[in-house]
Amino acid sequence: MADRKRFIVLGLGSFGTALSRQLVENGCRVTGVDRDRELVENLKNLLYEAVIADVTERETLEALALKDADAVFVNLGEQLEPSLLAALHVKELGARRIVVKGVTIEHGKILKKMGVDRVVFPEVEIAQELANHETWPNVLDYMPIDPDYSFIEIAVPDSIAGQTLREADLRRAHHIWVVGIKDTLTGKFDLFPDPEIRIRDDHLLLIAGRKTDLNRFRELR
Question: Angle, to 10 degrees, between the axis of helix 80-92 and the axis of helix 105-113?
């Protein structure tokens, strides 16, 4: 497939392995690199390329054609120096997009100063998602836009079921915007729905707003 995306995963620990497996499942070509022979051997039949090498060495990275990859992921465990060194080399060698697994907040700040595109903290992000889901089970999906604004997909609160969007007037009452409505019975999705549409309890609402306002709306019954 000519348009298959190509990714390079540096470090095949638990996170790097899970990431590589999912990328392959998504139909991507993945090059995985780690100095641990056993980790590489475990994935060699899955990956497009499996390389045993030290990813903190510039010569290793020069041989990987980083510029041709859609993104390079750096996942080097809990040691800061190897992660920073690998990220520095990857940046200098012209990778288009760099995503690094963060270890500490300070580590993340240094990486951002270096020009890394994204720093991820998997345990923190999963913990936040789990906590939010258990706290607000009516919220089915959550997508941050920036530090202040987010989208959420939420089940219709009983207190507004049966009203039209105009009657519920969520923009005035809760400072949020209904961007879309999905009918869970038919799967039909209305983007920017008509104000006269009647909200049913089998609808899902796609809502945008400030996180503080969305958090208050989550509590609506």
Answer: 20
In the CATH scheme, what is the homologous superfamily, with its name and number, of domain 134-218? Answer: Regulator of K+ conductance, C-terminal domain (3.30.70.1450)
Distance CA 152, CA 138 (A): 10
| Per-residue model confidence as pLDDT tens for the chain (221 residues) | 446 899 999 999 999 999 999 999 999 999 999 999 999 999 999 999 999 999 999 999 999 999 999 999 999 988 899 999 999 999 999 999 999 999 999 999 999 999 999 999 988 888 877 787 777 777 777 777 877 898 999 999 999 999 999 999 999 999 999 999 999 989 899 999 999 999 999 999 999 999 899 989 988 88
What residue spans define the domains of the chain?
Answer: 6-122, 134-218
Domain 6-122 has what CATH class? alpha beta
Q: What are the backbone dihedrals phi and psi of residue 150, each rounded to the nearest 5 degrees, phi first?
A: -150, 165
